[in-house]
Amino acid sequence: MAVAYNQDRYSRHLLLKGFGGDAQSKLTSARVLMIGAGGLGCPALQYLAAAGVGEIGIVDDDVVSLSNLQRQVLYRTQDIGKKKASVAAAQLQELNPDIRLTPYLLRLDTSNAIELFSRYDIIVDGTDNFATRYLINDACVILEKPLVFAAVFQYEGQLAVFNVPDAAGIKTNYRDLFESPPSAADAPDCNEAGVLGVLPGTMGVMQATEVIKLITGLGKPLINKLLIYQALEAESYTVSLQPSEQAAALAPQTAEAFQRMDYEWFCNATINKVAELDPEIFETLTELADVKVVDVREFGEYPRARFKHTQIPLSLLLQEIPAFEEARIVVFCQSGKRSLQAAELIKEMIKPHQEVYSLKGGILAL
Amino acid sequence: MPFGQIAEITGADAFQLEAADTDQVQQALYERFPALEKRAYAIAVNKVIVKDNTMLSNGSVVALLPPFSGG
Questions:
Q1: Residues of chain B found within 8 Å of residue A226, distances taken between Cβ atoms
Q2: Is A73 left (phi over 0), alpha (psi -120 to 50) or beta?
Q3: CATH fit for domain A11-244, picks 3.40.50.720, 1.10.10.10, 3.10.50.40, 3.10.310.40
Q4: Phi-psi bin for B11: left (phi > 0), alpha (psi -120 to 50), beta?
Q5: Which residues lie across from A149 on neighbouring strands?
């Protein structure tokens, strides 16, 4: 592969045993999308740009604030109020004029993610909220796009490489770790909980390291694993991940289903409210074990459901909620209205490990 | 072994419990730390994430891993 690059700029890579010209060519041809130019994004971007990754996209719609400067090392005091993605792209272009940098001053959503991700080889998640993290994860699963994930909390960080198959063809993603999002109160972000400034630096640099390993084929990327780094102990703890059928059933299966998802709502809803299910997700979920499907229409209503279910009309539920043993309770009715009411009733009665879902649009939407 | 927000509830240090499986571990923890019951976390037994109730043997290490959102 003959790709032009500056021999002098990358001489320490070219000298490096096991690295050399081939690996440098791969970096030069690679396209990486960094989502979030904050605590994780700044250090990750610096090393990716310095290493000569040929095309780097930066997604961020936020502006630099004074409290960012404690950890977001691409920005200077004079940048306060400016768009992060623009400042980052300009700084990195000065660091390495040989690469192509594209700032995207937009908020990632279900309408733009699929198209944007398609233009890149590897996606790097440096965002700061669950809604965007699940959105990125699900889009990457649909596109089968490698995702380098990191997240921080106070003095600890998590790192993983998702959607990259191991030697046996097995791959995992964020939902295999946490199938549905916790409430915001459950996992406060840096704005609420504080963070040791250098910690996202460490984790962002580790993300850049995994990206470089994936591009060059060097070493063993953190596939099907989650690494937890504890800065105060100077220790790391690595656990293995396995694909989970249940987790996969909860994710949108197609780009169309993905575009219909409301992640903001989904992430705030699952703890306190009932999650409404897309018809496609409903169909996959009803086939799983440990799921109770309940028809809350009155007896004799049509069309009859052709899948396995139990009928408990809403009028009976209003009198008494039975105890459900299954981990997931999925209710449906004709149009999705009564089932939402029923699901909310059940929600108040269930145990903490149980989840309740309502079929959006009812049986007529199937 | 507790991590992140879980360690804020249980204390940061690892501790020993008598339990036959992960369900029993959770029950024992909820009795000791009621605030834990409403928290989200993944469970790893001997460094493998498990989704269903998992049998434990003498010396099994159970880690509680909460999701982090910060970036």
A1: 49, 65
A2: alpha
A3: 3.40.50.720
A4: left
A5: A125, A160
Answer yes or no: do A151 and B37 touch at CB < 8 A: no
* pLDDT computed for residue A321 by the predictor: 86
Whole-model pTM?
0.80
Least confident of A29-33, A127-131, A172-176, A237-241: A127-131
pLDDT digits (tens, 9 = 90+) for A69-115: 999 999 999 999 999 999 999 999 999 999 999 999 999 999 999 99
Q: Where in the sequence numbering do the catalytic residues of A fall? A: 190, 333
Q: What are the distances in angstroms from CA A193 to CA A46, A184, A339?
A: 26, 12, 37
Structure tokens at A161: 């490489």
The structural domains of chain B, with segments of one domain joined by +, span 4-65
Q: How far apart are CA A222 and CA A123, in angstroms?
A: 15
C-alpha dihedral (A227, A236, A185, A280), degrees to nearest 10: 10
**Gap between the Cα atoms of A12 and A360, Å rounded:** 57
| Mutation for testing the B interface, residue in A72, A135, A153, A205 having most B CBs under 10 Å | A153
Nearest-CA distance B32 → chain A (Å):
16
Chain A nearest-CA residue for B34: A352
Cα gap A236→A227, rounded to integer Å: 7
CATH topology of domain A273-365: Oxidized Rhodanese; domain 1 (3.40.250)
CATH 3.10.20.30 fits B4-65, yes or no: yes
On the question of pLDDT at A332 being above 70, the answer is yes
Rounded Cα distance between A126 and A38, Å, is 7
What are the residues whose beta carbons fall under 8 Å from the beta carbon of B7, sequence distance 6 or more?
Answer: none
